[in-house]
From TrEMBL:
Pathway linked to the protein: Carbohydrate biosynthesis; gluconeogenesis
GO MF term (any one): magnesium ion binding
Domains: entry comment: Consists of a single catalytic domain, but remodels its active-site architecture via a large structural change to exhibit dual activities.
Its EC number(s): 3.1.3.11, 4.1.2.13
PANTHER family to which the protein is assigned, alphabetical: FRUCTOSE-1,6-BISPHOSPHATE ALDOLASE/PHOSPHATASE (PTHR38341), FRUCTOSE-1,6-BISPHOSPHATE ALDOLASE_PHOSPHATASE (PTHR38341:SF1)
Amino acids binding Mg(2+) 1: 13, 20, 54, 96
Reaction catalysed by this enzyme: beta-D-fructose 1,6-bisphosphate + H2O = beta-D-fructose 6-phosphate + phosphate; beta-D-fructose 1,6-bisphosphate = D-glyceraldehyde 3-phosphate + dihydroxyacetone phosphate
Binding site for Mg(2+) 3: 232-234
Originating species: Anaerolinea thermolimosa
Record: residues binding dihydroxyacetone phosphate: 20, 134, 266, 287
Family of the protein in this entry: Belongs to the FBP aldolase/phosphatase family.
Protein name: Fructose-1,6-bisphosphate aldolase/phosphatase
Keywords: Carbohydrate metabolism, Gluconeogenesis, Hydrolase, Lyase, Magnesium, Metal-binding, Schiff base
């Protein structure tokens, strides 16, 4: 087939079970029923509903293209309906990520996270979908860099003629709402200047040098949308694999390093990202440590063949062990940096309210103690 197919992953936290640790099966069931209805009416080619921690992810294929109101609206309807179920069960934080009352054509800016790509399905199209909980949008920067630009991770950059030219990265400045493109390997150092600052610069997409999309991430920063802390972004990312893109094993390899991300308890701490099976994506210890899951699919005329639960594999046991050791080490710092986020990042948590209460208690230093 040479037709275009769109893969949309739209997610939201609409209520946790228990606390913020997991998803109630009733919500997964209700979302699946509604998706089935949209599939039988041929709005969707196919779908898969899953959860990572307290986030509900709707994975969909269709032919409407990215940012289509009909697809965004159906996701919004499902989140609204499931919020009703969450309210009945009095789940924790029911409707947390739905920041608006009425749908206005696109879920962007309304709370849910979105990653979408329109592609021409190849002869064989292996897709990997990453979903994280208790962390923020910049969490994909390091793994995406390794997958598409680091030859120590991706042997294909050296060995495969299909990848030897390198890739093109689209980076968004989520605070100034601007973007920039970098070609690797030539501009690798320039790229790293920005993407190392994960709270502000986020890799939105990666393309081949011919412009074909290879990866897309959700860049929604909930706190910046809501103007206050309502929960972490808990981002998603779609990666195409094999052939001109990194092999499945090269796409998964970055997650063997227990890399430190922001999020965890109250969205206010740094901690290591733990790759787990879907079943084990239930962040409980100190509301964490942050989790990442990966579902693998083969696309067949837009149908989602799968999923395979990619981190449900003993070769990721060692990184999980290392994450636990690092988690212990970070936790021992308690409320001290670098476990707790630095002050300017705490601006987007509930801490400013406490600081406001103490504002009038500050007094000027006596002159004798003031530097000349
Ligand atoms: C992290 C997260 C949780 C909560 C924490 C406190 O993204 O959502 O860690 O911040 O459980 O929640 P509240 O203030 O609702 O009791
Ligand atoms: Mg939650
Ligand atoms: Mg969450």
């Amino acid at each position: 087939m040479n037709k275009q197919v769109t893969v949309s992953v739209i997610k939201a936290d609409i209520g946790g079970y228990v606390g913020h640790s997991a998803m109630h099966p009733g919500l997964l069931e209700r979302a699946s029923q509604m998706m089935e209805d949209f599939r039988s009416r041929r709005v969707l080619i196919d779908f898969h509903v899953t959860s990572c921690g307290d986030d509900l992810q709707l994975i969909m294929t269709h032919t409407f293209g990215v940012d289509h109101p009909q697809i965004h609206q159906l996701a919004w309807e499902i989140f609204r309906e499931c919020t009703g179920t969450a309210r009945e069960l009095k789940l924790y934080g029911a409707g947390q990520d739905l920041l608006a009352d009425a749908f206005s054509g696109n879920v962007r800016g309304m709370g849910p996270g979105v990653a979408e790509m329109e592609i021409t399905e190849r002869e064989s199209e292996p897709l990997l979908i990453f979903m994280a909980d208790k962390t923020s949008a910049g969490a994909w920067n390091l793994p995406l860099f390794k997958m598409f630009a680091d030859p120590f991770n991706t042997a294909g950059l050296i060995i495969s003629p299909a990848m030897h030219a390198g890739f093109r990265f689209e980076v968004h400045d989520v605070k100034q709402h601007q973007r920039i493109f970098f070609n690797t390997p030539e501009e690798m150092y320039d790229l790293l200047v920005f993407i190392g600052a994960t709270g502000r610069y986020v890799i939105k997409a990666v393309y081949t040098r011919e412009g074909e999309v290879g990866a897309v991430s959700s860049t929604q920063r909930l706190a910046l949308i809501a103007g206050k802390y309502v929960g972490k972004d808990d981002p998603v990312c779609i990666v195409r694999s094999q052939g001109k893109f990194p092999a499945v094993g090269e796409v998964l390899e970055p997650f063997t390093m227990p890399h430190i991300v922001e999020g965890w308890m109250r969205g206010s701490h740094y901690g290591p990202l733990m790759p787990t099976s879907v079943r084990q994506a239930t962040p409980a210890r100190f509301d964490g440590p942050p989790r990442v899951i990966c579902l693998g699919f083969q696309l067949a005329e837009g149908r989602l063949i799968g999923p395979r639960d990619m981190f449900d594999d003993p070769s990721f046991d060692e990184v999980r062990r290392q994450v636990n050791i690092l988690a212990d080490q970070m936790r021992r710092h308690g409320p001290f940096e670098p476990h707790r986020l630095p002050m300017d990042e705490m601006e987007y948590t509930t801490l400013p309210q406490v600081m406001e209460k103490l504002r009038d208690r500050w007094e000027a230093l006596p002159e004798t103690l003031t530097p000349a």
